[in-house]
Amino acid sequence: MKRLLNILTLWLLLFLFGCQNPNVRINSLSELPEVLQAGFNSERWYFTNAEISPPINIVKKKGISGLANPFLLPVKDKLILTTYNGYLVSMNKDNLGNVANKRIGRGISAPAAFSRPLLFIPAEKGKYGLQAYDLAGRQFLWKKKQLYSRSSPLVPDQMIIHATLKGKIFALNKINGEVVWQYQNSKPIESDLALHDNILIACSRDGLVTALNLDDGGVLWRKELPEHIYTSPLIANDCIFIPDMKGNVFKLDLKKGTVVEKNSFNSPFYQPFSTDGNQLFLMGSEGTLWALDFNLRPLWSVSLKGTPTTPILITKNHLLIATYQKKVYLIDKRNHEIAQELTLKNRPAAAVVDEKGTVFIAMEYDSVLRLESSKGEEKQ
Amino acid sequence: MQRKLVFRIIGILFIFIVQALAQGFYFGRNKVQYTHFNWQILKTEHFDIYYYPEMQDVAEKGAQFAEESYRALEQKFNYSVTYRIPLIFYSSHLHFQQTNVTPGFIPENVGGFFEFIKGRVVVPGNGDIKEFRRVIRHELVHVFMHSKIANVLRRYDKLEGAYPPLWFVEGLAEFWSTDWDAQAEMVLRDAVLNNYVVGLENIYQISGTFTMYKVGQDVMRYIAQNYGEDKILKMMELVWKYPYFEYCFKEALGTDYEEFDHKYLYDLKKRYYPLLKNNDFSEQVCETIVRQGYNFKPAYYEINGEPYVVFVANRTGYSSIYMRPLKPLSLKDKEKDVELLVKGEASSEFEAFHVFDSRIDVNRDGILAFSSKSGETDVLYLYSIPERKIIARRQFPHLVGIYSPAWSPDGNEIVFSGLDFGGYKDLYIFQVRQKRLIKLTDDFYADDDPAWSPDGRFIAFASDRGVQGKEGAANIFLLDRQSGEIRYLTFGKEKDRSPSFSADGKYLAFTSDRKGSYNIYLITDPVQSAFERKPVRMFKMTSYLGATFDPCWTPQNGLLYGTFEKGYFQIRYEPNFLTHLTTAERIVQPILVKDTTRWSFKNIVPQKVEERKPYVRKYDLDFAQTQVSQDPIFGTTGGAQLAFTDMLGNDQYYLLIYNNARVASEFWKSFNVAVTKISLEDRVNWGVSLYRFAGYYFYPGNAYFYEERVGGIVTFSYPFSQFTRVSVSQNLAYSDKDWFFNKRRRAYLNSSYISLVNDNSIWGPSGPMDGQRINITFGNTYDLAFSNVNYLTGLIDVRKYFRISLRSAYAVRFLSLFNEGRETLEYYFGGSWDLRLYRRWSLHGKRILLISQELRFPLIDQLGIRFPMAALRFQGIRGALFLDAGNAWNNKFPGFKGSFGFGIRLNLGNVLVLRLDIGRKTDFKSIGKKTITQFFFGWDF
């Protein structure tokens, strides 16, 4: 009997601790960015106006409960991420300490979006396909059953745009989750949407590009591209840039949907374009990094090892590229050379550069690394 | 009843050693390491390549192919394999069959494999460098797929998921490594037009067959075409999400198997049914000479003016050479006049006839020339049909493989395609009287299927030396024996094979896949076309729905050929073959000029080689297994076993640890450990083991006792051939045995055993059906120090299987066991595995005798029970009639106990055979009144 009571007590303690909300609390909301999305902006540029000074080295490594989704959110002094196996995790950015995590799902395939103070987490499996978590109040504000998704949400103004695997696009009220409008696409949507100037762009894998009016979800135009598309669109200079799986790249007019330019390369593309507003960057699965102008003409290229695992991240002067060959490259945009080639112990799966130029990388299968320029010691 | 535990443990230990030494311990065939390879390692960016120096050139090409494939597959899979992939190359299939990477036997039609434990890829060359490249790519698709799926599961923190089924795994490997070719077309077309094609819902029915490979490949093509190739990748990326692959399939395509089959099978009909309008099956319009089984490579022969066809076939499970009168079969003909000339796969002389790759030939004197694997290499045999015996046998020191021997018109020379140790295939001539070997070609190209012109001056052969050979083409060439010059006869990107001159030399027939499927083509006046620069007159002579190949002329310009129809390989005959000329399609050939363009594949460039070094053994953990068991008397036993092997599987280490202590104070007293090393590298396999076994046992003859044994065992096994081996073992152990009632003995035991095993059986669904199995073992155990133990052990187990029909056999077994001496073990006897209908192990004694007879036959081919929600299917239920007689005794033979009855056997997934025996006991003076039913599991004896 005594033993049974001890076991029950232990179980209760574990249960109570396990049920704690993540210890993620932001005190000073005014210093937080308004919005943080995978792609850094709703146009999906993957550009942060920070400076990295190579060489960078690993200064800290921390184990977490799973593998982070392809974008880590640096929210003030915290790093917030979700994992493929369904955890919401937060940690201090400076020392990767104070790790808090909570199981919120069974399969999360796309990164969350942040709109102060709410975190919107899409899931592909489990009970809820979309959950809104209040970082200040440390509680879930609302949850949506099913609505499973592989897309990272967009958060314009008071709305959140959520695309589901069944091809439905929802505009929901950020605060209470009520549906503002919804649209049924004819094909499933598995990549991130892009938004600019009230025009929402969705790509399906089969090549269907759809433009919707952000206000009411009305269809502006549709365009069927000839090949299948694995990745997300990018919007820049009032145009949409999309690569496909046969090595073609397209430039479409944002308002009309017509193909303005096209080019071909000999490699399938599994990652989207990135841009800093001056050039477009794209990496083929055979390992070539391309810099293109906005008419899709190649400007320069670099051969790297491996197929990319994440979109190219762009800083003021460098590109950060992670590949399946356990490599992280820093490419100097100015002289087009490899400024640094870092080999990790395992494959990098997600990366982010914060406003101070600190690099955070999630590594297979349960680690987060903090990298800084070489003042810090390398620890792994 | 509790068996003596130490016997079981030693049995386990023995199994560790001897099973590794001889596939299956008690019986089993032998994987013979005829050749000692001087292994080297070539390290490239992504691969560790294991090869031997004789094949260095092929290996370096293989390295280049591997790196190219790696790059291509990185893009296909959107993924990189980051561990170094071990690639093990062999220069020929005969060498490949000796590999220890897998303990199993490798059939002739296996082109390579990928094993999961160490992630090794093993690929043989066989003279065709393009096929080598294709197989490397095929196996690397498996590597990438396996690694990608493991990565996906790990990302989502899943231990297991919806691993793709075999049709997907092999279909994908085929789809991403090879184009749709005539062989694929042959298989799928036949399946559709003969109504045995299945869709994905029922693909389990053809699981593991070549048809499944091709259906899988075509399904991939269909998905890529209609849904997008990205969907294939998507299915793999969804395996974490669902318990069954069909759900991944459904999410990726938006359709389940049933709906998919509905469209796909219809698409197949639309593709192939129109062919019926203008084409026939050859069976409908030609004479069928041989129909049953799998029949290949016809050769013409006359006995006293009567025509015969000699051919290679697998009609019973053994590939053999047969002969039959050249007369057509009716549809219901049972082919009783097929005569077996040379039985293959049952003796070391004729281990394999290379049925797909090697032709045979008969000269005017009735001397059949053929090749067979015999030990380490192929042997060229001459068999006299009139005398029905082998008259000559020839092995060539530097040749591993011999293919397609063909007699010269004067009967003194035999031309053949020879595969050397380095992996290159060239033409050779063997002069029979002079016993001299001449090498005709000597280059990197694969030369095959040689055939003499009637005047003996020219040799036609198939080769990839043409300018499009690099892309996979094989064309027909003519070699002038006088000048040595080689000229094109056909030209193009097709695969042209098996040339054959008509008796008057005016025609050359050959097989070609131009137009997408195998058919017979004809060139008129071939010599003039090639050497006098006359225009080539080529005709497509057959357009049958089934593939046609391996043409062979008769003196009257009739044509024998092989065909694939209704899933079988058959032989047809057209006595008036040339009448096709009147309606045959004329094929336009470009003007043939002497072409000196030589092509080659590049070796891996030195800059991409990271290291070269001799092979040094390093060991990795292959598996680790733990087990806990609970017994009401003996309590709990827990233990673990680990196995370590080197990369080539030649050296193996096993560690066994377990404990059966009942209380903590007995922990060391009941601690058991055994360490075993086995070496399989050379022809003599050996093993050594050190052990300590200790614990409490119960044995009816000995009651309850504690015994500790500490010792070592050494075993050697020498295989004479694939079928016969001799093994010796020597065991030295200290034994301390305590019976608790003031009885205790110590002994220094020495056990010496010798075994002779022969096994050439082939198996049906529930047990052996043909051949024989023999095990004769003798041994002696005695106490070196105290004379407390001294006994002799003998075992004779002879089993023979007489084939009655394709699926029926009569099996006989004679078993005799004895133990004689002091502290002998008793044998336990009775039960479904020996004396049936008696309780298991209900009889025991120092001597056992058993004679069993059994008639085995098919009972129910298919039994289905359909419920509203699901269906159950049972296939291959077999029956048996048996009669057993035997007994166990100590001193005087007490007479026979027997049983007879009827049995039913059901094979469950080739893992387990359920057995039900019903019958009566007898003492051969009277029959028991009670009908006994006995249910158990296990294979037939």
Structure description:
- The complex is a heterodimer of chains A (380) and B (941).
- With 380 residues, chain A is mostly beta strands.
- Chain A has one domain (17-24, 31-373): YVTN repeat-like/Quinoprotein amine dehydrogenase (Methylamine Dehydrogenase, Chain H, 7 Propeller).
- Chain A has one helix and 32 strands.
- In chain A, the strands form eight sheets. Chain A has a five-stranded antiparallel sheet, with no helix packed on it.
- The longest helix of chain A is centred in the first third of the chain and has 17 residues, at 2-18.
- Chain A is globular and about 75 Å long.
- Residues 18-22 and 376-380 of chain A have low confidence and may be disordered.
- By secondary structure, chain B is of the alpha+beta class.
- Chain B is built from 13 helices and 50 strands.
- In chain B, the strands form nine sheets. Chain B has a 17-stranded antiparallel sheet that branches. A six-stranded mixed sheet of chain B has the order 4-5-3-2-1-31. A five-stranded antiparallel sheet of chain B has the order 23-24-25-26-30, with no helix packed on it.
- The relative contact order of chain B is 0.08.
- The chains are: A mainly beta (380), B alpha+beta (941).
- At the A-B interface, loops of A face helix 2 and helix 4 of B.
